[in-house]
Design a protein that fits this description.
This protein is mainly α. It has one domain. Helix 1 runs antiparallel to helix 2.
Length: 77
């Protein structure tokens, strides 16, 4: 499957971005909570979830503004 074109996202890039960014942020956040000895309840997990969503959206936005050559903010040739 080819990479997404500039200002477009294909399904592969969309799903890959969501999964990669979300899981990375969740694992990092939970690891830090466990290291500090914090309880794993909604109050401590909510910020981790919010950062995970922000990371996933950031990855998708980056892919949206990247062309098939991997150049950011560059139109297709």
């Amino acid at each position: 499957m080819e990479r997404s074109k500039f200002l477009q996202l294909n399904l592969r890039d969309f799903l890959k971005g969501l999964v990669l960014a979300f899981i990375t942020a969740i694992i990092t956040g939970i690891y830090e909570l466990l290291q500090t000895g914090a309880a794993l309840d909604w109050v401590t997990l909510k910020p981790v979830l919010m950062v995970s969503i922000a990371a996933a959206l950031s990855y998708l936005i980056k892919n949206l503004f990247t062309n098939t050559d991997g150049k950011i903010l560059s139109a297709e040739k």
